[in-house]
Amino acid sequence: MASLQGLIGGVLIGLSAVLLMASLGRIAGISGILSGLLWGRPDGDTAWRLTFLLGLVSGPWLVMLIGGGLGNVADSAEAVIGAPVGGVGTMLVAGLLVGLGTGVGSGCTSGHGVCGMARLSPRSLAATLTFVVVAMATVYITRHLVGGMP
Amino acid sequence: MKALLGYLAGLLFGLGLTIGGMTDPARVIGFLDVAGDWDPTLIFVLGGAVVTTFLGYRLAWRRGVPWLVPRFALPTRRDLDVRLLGGAALFGVGWGLSGYCPGPAVASIAGLSAPLAAMLVAMAAGWWLARRV
Q1: Out of A102, A137, A142, whose CB is closest to B87?
Q2: Under 8 Å CB-to-CB from A78, ≥6 apart: which residues?
Q3: Closest residue, chain A, to B11 (C-alpha)
Q4: Cβ contact (<8 Å) for A97 and B16?
């Protein structure tokens, strides 16, 4: 079941990327859209970036209102959004690395992983391989070598 | 009209993340934890998204111009550099520590907790810093 729902979720994310390309000619890269909204100079892109953010937040919220039966996270509304896996300290470090890394590396799982790979971009392929392998190594070190952390 | 399309695209993205289980960081960690109780869900989400986007992009490009703006804005660089790979590596460490990449972290605001708030504020600070290095 989880794999089927994963596939459906993936197709919806793909449709989102296609809609943004077909209408606004843009890559659906979350880090680029939000970093531009927060720290870029206000311009012709500000309005759609803001409504994209609202849409992104209302997706899970809608599933919670329906009751959570759509999600493969859980069958109860409260569990549609899973709990963070670490405390405030871990998340501060992780958040800074995610922001800095996706900013300097010009993309995240959506911009490089979905849109860039679909464009067959060599930069996005290299970036995606790098962050997946490094993330797997990080989980291996924190969960199996150090233990108990984070 | 651009704002409406932006909302629809964001909503589809948020629904996709949720239905695919990506708003649960434990499930993402389950994918990254290859030496543990491995959870393949993320492969299906990423695979479904890449194949749909691959096909849909080609349909969109065939028309020559987007619906609402004069031209497509596509990255043109093809070279690999230190910023790209170094940035991706830093992101990988943060992703592995938290199970959050930017989309799911932001989409999860409806379930806000202190650790998630810390994640979001630090991520915004990271984006600010990235524009200055």
Answers
A1: A102
A2: A64, A68, B111
A3: A55
A4: no
Classify A95 in phi/psi space as left (phi over 0), alpha (psi -120 to 50) or beta: alpha
CB contacts of A37 in chain B (<8 Å) are none
Mean model confidence pLDDT for chain A: 91
Task: Give the DSSP letter of residue A144.
Answer: I
The 10s digit of each residue's pLDDT in B5-62 is: 999 999 999 999 999 999 999 999 999 999 999 999 999 999 999 999 999 999 999 9
Nearest to A13 by CA among A79, A59, A74: A59
Contact (CB, 8 A) for A82 and A73: yes
Given an 8 Å threshold on Cβ–Cβ distance, is B73 in contact with A126?
Answer: no
Structure tokens at A105: 């590396």
Q: Using the 8-state DSSP alphabet, how is residue B26 labeled?
A: H
**Rg of the Cα atoms in chain B:** 17
What distance in Å separates the CA atoms of residue A43 and residue A38, rounded to the nearest whole number? 12
In this predicted structure, the answer to whether residue A38 has a pLDDT above a threshold of 70 is yes
CB B110 within 8 A of CB A81: yes
The stretch A25-30 carries a mean pLDDT of 96
Whether this prediction's pTM lies above 0.80 is answered by yes
For chain B, report the end-to-end CA distance as a whole number of angstroms: 36
